[in-house]
Amino acid sequence: MSNPRFSAPAKERLVLTAERLYAIHGLDGVPMRQIVTEAGMANKTAVQYHFGSKEGLIEAILINRLDNLDRRRELLLARAPAHDLRSVVEAHQLPLIELAEDDDCYYLQFLEQLARKANPIHSLPAHNLAVESAYYERVDALLPQIPKTLRNIRIQQASATALHVCADRHQTRVFGSAVPPYAVHVSQLLDSLMATLTTQPSEETLAALDAWSDEGVTSAS
């Protein structure tokens, strides 16, 4: 039986191979020649030929799955009640959550590695960035009870939590260890994200926000 990894187009093979290797070994732990070799290619300069540089390859990995993720988000969001925060969050996060169930997809761990270098959002193409920005704006509008300055922090933290929890689940599954059933995993994760977003801030946090505002940050009220 033929290996599908070797029947895929050259650029796709390089992207998927690099996604896996970078996810496992880090962005600085994989020589270009190793990616080329494990992709089953004889041309040792294949990365430079197809992507120009390591940075070009990393960008290609980042955007490779984004359009499919965003299309699924749009479909889910079309069915989500506009004023139901949990449904809006689920519509945006579920396509990413689902990737943890694919043993051959290392995108979540790759994003974790990339986030250690820079915020991946800053590297998104304009149309993908627009989807992310629209999500932030929609969630922000559904949190009127939370101080304005705190909302963006919480939305970022909720997205980071979803990424790290799901990346850890994928790694645990690949290692062959037991994980909670998918239904429990998704529901509990959404519970955690909702708690992050909606819990009323403590007096300590409010005082810290006021001090931050006094230092020149826009008012938290």
How would you characterize this protein structure?
This protein folds into two domains: 4-63, Homeodomain-like (Arc Repressor Mutant, subunit A, Orthogonal Bundle), CATH 1.10.10.60; 65-214. The chain is 69% helix and 0% strand. It is an all-alpha fold. The model is unreliable at 1-7 (pLDDT under 50).
Tell me the layout of helices and strands.
Elements: H1 4-7, H2 10-25, H3 32-38, H4 46-51, H5 54-64, H6 66-79, H7 85-98, H8 107-115, H9 126-141, H10 148-174, H11 182-198, H12 203-214
Helix pairs in contact: 2-5, 2-8, 6-7, 7-10, 7-11, 8-10, 10-11
Total beta strands: 0
Strand content: under 5%
Oligomer classification: single chain
What is the approximate shape?
globular
**Radius of gyration, rounded?**
20 Å
Low-confidence stretches: 1-7
The string of secondary-structure elements, in order, is: HHHHHHHHHHHH
Report the sheet with the most strands, covering strand number, pairing sense and barrel closure: none
Helicity range: 55-70%
SS element count, helices: 12
Structural class computed from helices and strand pairing: mainly alpha
How far the N terminus sits from the C terminus, by CA atoms, comes to: 63 Å
Average pLDDT value?
91
The domain tally reads 2
